[in-house]
Specification:
single chain, mainly alpha, two-stranded antiparallel sheet
Length: 193
């Protein structure tokens, strides 16, 4: 009478122990993956810093092509702003090499770089206004820019552009315009090549 008919009571499922064992294996695998990804994050920020430096270098070369020289230390409204603000204002089309403010071509790609504020030049702004803004590295510290050909000690024919790295510590460039590679604070800095 009961041949070939199953009542459903004889089926066997997974035991609680088997389910807990499978969950433990999944947790171990997920932990290993998370640890591996966390180890890659510092590398990805370093790569991003290199990529950002290349973007800034391209903008600096376009600036030099347009004006004949790189942005330099100048007086603006009677004061000497930080070189990082000079870099931002020059590459964002706000400043000529002589410090004159104007409406010049935008050389920065705002979609790929991070900035310290949302203060950007407005095209056609009259009179043009200085913007207290800087270009940030992946760790949230301004990229550092040095170019001072007017200083008699400056022996470098180029600029020095770098990120202070994950620890945000750095010793400034030498008076001759060279990276201060021997200083302990510069171990993790990332320099333009």
């Amino acid at each position: 009478m009961g041949v070939g008919v199953s009542s459903g009571f004889g089926k066997r499922g997974f035991s609680l122990l088997e389910i807990l064992g499978a969950m433990a294996v999944i947790v171990v695998i997920m932990t290993m993956l998370a640890m591996g990804v966390r180890g890659l994050l510092p590398l990805s920020k370093s790569k991003q810093a290199h990529t950002d430096i290349i973007q800034i270098q391209q903008a600096l070369e376009a600036y030099k092509s347009a004006f004949g020289e790189y942005p330099r230390r100048v007086l603006v409204d009677g004061g000497s702003p930080p070189m990082e603000e000079i870099l931002f204002n020059a590459l964002s089309g706000r400043m000529a090499p002589n410090g004159a403010l104007g409406n010049f071509p935008l050389l920065l790609d705002r979609s790929v770089l991070e900035f310290s504020t949302n203060a950007f030049p407005i095209a056609g702004e009259s009179p043009p206004q200085w913007k207290a803004n800087t270009i940030l590295d992946p760790w949230g510290t301004p990229f550092l820019y040095r170019y001072d050909p007017d200083d008699s000690n400056w022996e470098n024919y180029n600029y020095v552009l770098f990120s202070a790295g994950p620890d945000a510590k750095y010793a400034d460039v030498t008076a001759e315009g060279q990276p201060n590679a021997s200083h302990a604070d510069n171990v993790d800095n990332i320099y333009a090549e």
